[in-house]
Design goal:
The complex is a heterodimer. By secondary structure, chain A is mainly alpha-helical. Helices cover 69% and strands 0% of the residues of chain A. The chains are: A mainly alpha, B alpha+beta. Bound molecules: flavin-adenine dinucleotide (FAD).
């Protein structure tokens, strides 16, 4: 376990957050859902490591 | 024009067994002359086991049904002596295209590895396949093999006794009875045998219908597999176009769950769909059409007492991935030699437990793969569809997303990892692909191929080392095939069987799966491996 980075790792988090929200601006719910799905897949491929991905799924699930 | 699947190939004929006062006993009776029953019967005949095949019908498969045959089943059919006509007549293909909405999002090449006798895939109508098998049965009969094909023989009752099975049969001339030491049920997905014995067949039903139209047309589409997700001519659904010999094209439309079957099958409605897909001016003749739903399920065990199940009777998968007939042939490949040894008294009846273990493992792999394909093709929830479409949108521009696209993962043979018949791997540095449990990868050898040299019994394959010419253990003989990397111009033998090891000895089963491997010849190890591979350790 604990291969997944769970400590802060992004410089200028406010900037990234704003960029994420901006990417969804003007999109319908369906378009936003599609964008999120493409984003998840793109990031997942970048990570690649199956153990990390499984951990990330568990973290995301348990936080909700 | 009379079609091959409309001509009786093995019409009912009266058998002397029908005159007998007490039921005649046979060693092996097979129910069903579909591809799996025929495959098993041919295999048993080649092992000199007399066999009677009963089928209530007398013709080959009605319509094309299975069209795609993969390398491993072609290798098995080649061993049975009916691979060559399949490959000669069949259409070889390696290229596929995937479309989403209006556009092509990518194409792929199966890139088959060199140095195999059989191609990666051929497409062929199931009726040809069965026709070639019936021809092979006739050939074996002419050679004096005891293989009988009885059309118009419908099995209506079965009694499973400790030392035999009692079979009641209906014919156009009335009923008769038979007994069998072993009964093999290859009677298809709706297996009456399974029902008569009250055995379960559990799994998942997919709430969807697919309309198949096999059409004869002069068209200049290339020999490729084309698959559409959500195309304009079939909104929200999928479609498939694939070539078969004689200018027959397999066209498959997903049409949803709530449909009126009779309405959909009307030629004018099929015509409307075909013209929307292929253009208003196409000229074609409808050869066969059908609507199917599918299920992924299997029996809990593949044999009970003296009744053994194989093919669709034992397991059923969705057609995506071409796994039905392909995996059924791997059942018979696995079963025939085991039954032969049991009948000869050189292996215990418990050897059949390994048939269950190995083929249930194979069936589970097929069910897993075909369930996943089905879930991708027909997403079951809103979010599943969102991700599916996201994959397809990304796949057009980005290579990374293409491996997620699942329009059917094409059939690959099962590797019997963990089988009770395997001897633990003794070859340090040996390649993964030829580990114990794996089917032997083919290798070009001079003018021929390795698989042709393996014969139908146990083989001791020695590469660059000494070994005895034959070893007999508990009545089972393994004969040597001596090979050398000096006669390996392509390097495939070393690459596929040695890896980094300087030499190797393999024990290979009659079904061409690896039972054991060692760095050098040691007769005690080989004896142990033979005992283990025949269910005695
Ligand atoms: C549309 C479609 C596409 C497919 N595509 C592929 C593909 O591309 N590749 C692939 O590998 N598989 C494919 N399959 C699956 C393939 O067709 C089956 O897996 C295969 O036919 C199974 O063979 P079988 O011998 O087990 O059963 P069947 O072919 O069903 O044969 C059973 C036989 O038993 C006989 N029988 C039944 N009851 C009795 C009785 N009471 N007494 C005597 N005889 C009886 C029947 O007459 C029949 O001849 C496809 C199937 C469909 C429907």
């Amino acid at each position: 376990m604990a291969k997944l980075t769970l400590t802060r790792n992004i410089d200028a988090p406010d900037d990234f957050y704003a960029e994420l929200i901006a990417a969804h601006e003007g999109l319908s719910k369906a378009e936003s859902d599609a964008l999120n799905a493409r984003l998840v897949l793109t990031l997942a491929n970048h990570i690649g490591d199956r153990a990390v991905l499984t951990e990330a799924l568990a973290v995301a699930k348990s936080a909700g | 024009m009379s079609k091959i699947f409309e001509t009786p190939l093995y019409p009912y004929e009266r058998s002397p067994d029908q005159e007998a006062v007490t039921p005649v006993r046979h060693k092996v009776v097979v129910i069903g002359a579909g591809p799996i029953g025929l495959g098993l019967a041919i295999d048993l005949a080649l092992h000199d086991v007399p066999v009677v095949v009963l089928d209530d019908n007398d013709k080959v498969s009605f319509g094309s049904r299975a069209v795609c045959y993969a390398k491993r089943p072609l290798e098995i059919l080649d061993r049975l002596g009916c691979g060559a006509p399949m490959v000669d007549k069949g259409v070889e293909w390696n290229l596929g295209k995937v479309f989403f909405d209006q556009r092509q999002i990518y194409d792929f090449n199966l890139l088959p590895e060199d140095g195999h006798k059989q191609p990666a895939f051929v497409n062929l109508q199931q009726y040809y396949f069965e026709d070639y098998m019936v021809a092979r049965v006739r050939e074996l009969q002419a050679e004096g093999k005891r293989i009988e094909l009885r059309g118009g023989n419908k099995v209506v009752a079965i009694g499973d006794h400790p030392d035999h099975v009692h079979i009641e049969i209906e014919t156009p001339e009335g009923p008769y009875e038979l007994e069998a030491d072993w009964l093999i049920a290859c009677d298809g997905a709706n297996s009456p045998t399974r029902r008569m014995m009250g055995l379960d067949f559990v799994g998942k039903v997919f709430e969807d219908n697919f309309l198949i139209a096999d059409v004869v047309m002069e068209a200049d589409f290339p020999t490729e597999r084309w698959f559409w997700f959500d195309p304009p001519f079939n909104r929200g659904q999928s479609a498939l176009l694939h070539k078969q010999p004689d200018n027959v094209w397999r066209i498959d439309f997903q049409i949803g769950w709530d449909i009126d079957r009779k309405e959909e099958l009307k030629p004018e409605n099929i015509d409307r769909r075909l013209r929307a897909m292929l253009g208003p001016d196409i000229k074609y003749e409808l050869e066969w059409s059908s609507i199917y739903t599918f299920q992924c399920r299997r029996m809990e065990r593949f044999h009970k007492g003296r009744v053994i199940f194989a093919g669709d009777a034992a397991h059923q998968v969705s057609p995506f991935g071409a796994r039905g007939a392909n995996s059924g042939l791997q059942d018979t490949d696995n079963l025939a030699w085991k039954l032969k040894l049991i009948l000869d008294g050189t292996a215990p009846e418990t050897l059949l437990d390994s048939y269950d273990a190995e083929r249930i493992h194979g069936a589970d792999e097929n069910i897993l793969n075909s369930t996943r394909s089905t879930d991708f093709i027909t997403p079951k929830s809103e979010i599943s569809r969102i991700f599916r479409d996201a994959v397809l949108d990304l796949a057009e521009a980005h290579e990374f997303a293409r491996p997620f696209v699942n329009s059917g993962r094409l059939s690959v043979p099962a590797i019997y990892d963990g089988s009770p018949l395997n001897t633990p791997d003794g070859l340090d540095g040996g390649p993964e692909r030829s580990r114990p449990g794996a089917p032997c990868p083919d290798v070009p050898l001079g003018a021929g191929y390795l698989l042709d040299r393996l014969g139908g019994g146990f083989t001791i394959l020695s590469i660059d080392c000494e070994a005895e010419e034959a070893v007999t253990e508990g009545g089972v003989t393994a004969t040597r095939l001596a090979l050398s990397t000096k006669d390996d111009p392509t390097g495939a033998l070393a690459q596929r069987y040695l890896g980094t090891a300087p030499s190797a000895v393999y024990l290979i089963r009659p079904d061409q799966h690896v039972a054991a491997r060692f760095p050098e010849y040691d007769v005690q190890q080989i004896r142990f491996a033979i005992r283990r591979a025949t269910g005695k350790e």
